[in-house]
Automatic annotation (TrEMBL), chain B:
PANTHER family according to UniProt: TRICARBOXYLIC TRANSPORT PROTEIN (PTHR35342)
Ranges that cross the membrane: 20-47, 59-80, 107-130, 142-159, 165-182, 203-223, 261-284, 323-347, 359-382, 394-412, 474-492
Sorted UniProt keywords: Membrane, Transmembrane, Transmembrane helix
Protein name: Tripartite tricarboxylate transporter permease
The organism of origin for this protein: Amphritea pacifica
Domain DUF112 intervals: 18-443
Lineage summary: Bacteria, Pseudomonadati, Pseudomonadota, Gammaproteobacteria, Oceanospirillales
InterPro entries: DUF112_TM
């Protein structure tokens, strides 16, 4: 039996619709709402049913062709995962070490991950870029960029 | 109408707005040239910047970026056979062979002239079509709006390609589901927040657009390993002359005229857009060509280059008609602009024409300026702009990532949004690997709230009965079109397949006999 991209997608959406429909029952209603023609659960229930029906249709009509199988061999998932983790860390770093430093470190790490190894290049691009953006935001556009929590705690606000 | 045109003209010629057109066209051309990033990503990257501007300037900037990106896409199609977006794939069919014959300059110039004509025809048609349609749509009621949104959503799904209709519909439903997260506007109940304070306001439009169109597109290039490929160096000395001879102009003029009108009409249809227009115009042109001409197609035919280029620009303009008059976007890019307008507190639709004539008209007028800027400024600068493509990918990619993340962060100043973007990007990557289209989801998300409001109004007025769908002739007509659009193409396919198998059986039987 051949399982194609359509089967995986259809199954995923079927599960999502079931999950969505189940939790639609948790939406609080105002007293008396259940007698109204339209309330906060109407659309979610309709969407859950619609999603379920279309996913079933996709599952039933999906062609079982070998070339439609999901192939993951030629993709660099490891690198993408590293980049996404870097973004998450950047989010946390923004709070702790502030915009400027977080940006410089994010860019250096990003360049490094994608294969740039020349130290001079890493610094020559990231530092002026980050300072430039910081200058535009903080000085020209007057946007308040909070200093990092770490410095506030170490040296006081 | 003349009043309106003057209001628009006076808004559009304000120095700041003119600057926005120029900046938009340049930024768009550059982003559009990068393989993998098309008009949708370019416009998405601009949203955070437009938040700081007033509505007209913001939309003018986005329109400029949109045009620039389509133009930039054609440039990279012609020079390095790497279309920046789907709507310029056809451009590469004849544009790249021309470049290989050392006629890149001519190909670029022809692409610019065709785009300019297409854009001009589109802008003129928009000038007349939009107000007329807006007047008609003033008589629309909530039931008609509900029906129109259904039509918009089904049309996007129906035009998404063979075998993709169900997937596009699923993505639309997914978008509608995401739209229900957060506080319900009518009852105030929180839905699907799972107790998180950060989800009470729902998933923001900016976050969803940036994660699915900017972040995901960039990450996909890394996933496919495209960042390691060295960009093909374009030898600018081989560009050749940018001039077209009189005979060549005579040859392509009718093509450009035909394709522009055709492209505009396709663009007006909700869901069709520039990609389909360019493919159809190329096909049409090839069918009209003489047998001798036909052989040239795909090997550097000027007509084969002019047709898709004029059609895709005319269609880009055409897709503004349903956006500005009905509030229903015709393509992914206009869907993003709709979201941006809503964020400004402006509801596109028939009232836009009356309530915000300055926005309505200045968008139309500045589109024309955009075309002029592309022709006068961008074309001569192409050799310099394409030098930017030399920036190595390992340097460029983290910068684009940075722009998409901080674009969202600087609006909310909530780092939860960054983590949320990563989650959405991961989901989007898997959906893309499974070949699910992204634009219908964004469209569903944007229209979701409006659709729910109109449905609730219609249901309350009709006391819970669904009869409003067939009792009002206009609503019935729109719903019928939606059903036809959705049902007819698959039925035709089915019939064709059945005929083919029957034909094959007959052939086999005859062979046996």
């Amino acid at each position: 039996m051949i399982i194609t991209k359509d089967h995986i997608g259809g199954m995923g959406f079927l599960l999502l619709s079931a999950f969505y429909g189940f939790y639609a029952g948790d939406i609080p209603l105002l007293p008396g709402d259940e007698f109204e023609p339209f309330h906060a659960r109407t659309v979610p229930y309709a969407l859950a049913i619609l999603g379920g029906l279309i996913s079933l249709a996709l599952l039933l009509t999906a062609e079982r062709k070998a070339e439609k199988r999901l192939r993951l061999n030629n993709y660099d998932f490891a690198l993408v995962a590293k980049l996404l983790v870097l973004i998450v860390i950047f989010g946390l770093a923004l709070e702790w070490i502030g915009f400027l430093l977080a940006t410089v470190l994010f860019l250096i790490a990003g360049f490094w991950l994608l294969g740039e190894r020349r130290i001079k290049m890493l610094l020559m691009v990231s530092v002026p870029f980050a300072v430039g953006i910081w200058f535009i935001l903080a000085k020209l556009l007057d946007i308040y960029l909070a200093p990092g929590q770490l410095f506030v705690q170490l040296f006081g606000g | 109408m003349l009043d309106g045109i003057f209001t628009g003209l006076s808004t559009a010629v304000m120095p700041f707005n003119l600057l926005m057109v120029v900046v938009g066209c340049f930024a768009g051309t550059f982003i559009g040239m990068l393989p993998g990033l098309g008009p949708i990503s370019a416009v998405a990257l601009m949203i955070p910047i437009t938040y700081g501007l007033d509505p007209s300037s913001g939309i003018i900037l986005m329109a400029g970026v949109y045009y620039g990106a389509v133009f930039g896409g054609s440039t990279s199609s012609i020079l390095i056979n790497a279309p920046g977006c789907a709507s310029t794939v056809v451009t590469a069919f004849d544009g790249y062979p021309l470049a290989q014959q050392n006629q890149a300059g001519k190909a670029l110039a022809l692409a610019a002239y065709s785009s300019f004509t297409g854009g001009t025809v589109g802008a003129l048609a928009l000038l007349f079509a939009a107000p007329a349609l807006a007047k008609v749509s003033l008589s629309f009621q909530s039931t008609d709006y509900f029906a129109l949104m259904i039509l918009g959503l089904t049309a996007v799904a129906a035009f998404s390609g063979k075998g993709q209709v169900l997937k596009a519909l699923l993505m639309t439903v997914f978008g509608l589901m995401i739209a229900t997260v957060g506080t319900d506007t009518t009852s105030g109940a929180t839905r699907f927040t799972f107790g998180s304070i950060d989800l009470i306001d729902g998933v923001s439009f900016l976050l969803l657009a940036m994660a699915t169109f900017a972040l995901t597109e960039v990450v996909m290039t890394v996933l496919k390993g495209e960042h390691r490929e060295e960009e093909e160096q374009v030898d600018m000395s081989k560009l050749g002359s940018m001039k077209l001879s009189k005979e060549e102009i005579k040859e392509v003029a009718p093509t450009i005229g035909r394709s522009s009108v055709f492209g505009f009409l396709v663009g007006v249809l909700p869901g069709a857009g520039a990609t389909i227009a360019s493919f159809l115009a190329y096909g049409l042109e090839r069918n009209l060509a003489s047998a001798k001409e036909k052989l040239k197609f795909g090997k550097g035919s000027l007509r084969g280059l002019a047709a898709p280029e004029s059609a895709n620009n005319a269609a880009s303009t055409g897709s503004f008609v349903p956006l500005l008059t009905l509030g229903i976007p015709g393509s992914g890019t206009t869907a993003i602009m709709l979201g941006a307008l809503i964020a400004y507190g402006i509801q596109p639709g028939p009232r836009l024409f009356l309530d915000h004539p300055d926005v309505f008209w200045s968008v139309i007028i500045s589109m024309y300026f955009g075309n002029l800027v592309l022709l006068i400024l961008n074309l001569p600068l192409i050799p310099y702009i394409s030098k930017l493509l030399v920036i190595p990918r390992p340097i460029l990619i983290p910068m684009i990532l940075f722009f998409s993340i901080t674009g969202v962060y600087l609006v909310s100043f909530n780092t939860f949004d960054i983590q949320m973007m990563v989650v959405i990007t991961v989901i989007a990557i898997f959906l893309k690997l499974l070949e699910f289209p992204m634009a219908p989801m964004l469209l569903g998300y944007i229209l979701g709230g409006l659709m729910e409001t109109n449905l609730s109004r219609a249901l309350v007025i009709s006391d819970g009965s669904l009869a409003f769908l067939w009792e009002r002739p206009l609503t019935l007509a729109i719903i019928s079109i939606a059903v036809i659009v959705l049902v007819v193409p698959p039925l035709l396919d089915l019939l064709r397949n059945r005929n083919r198998t029957r034909g094959a059986e007959v052939a086999v039987n005859e062979g046996e006999g």
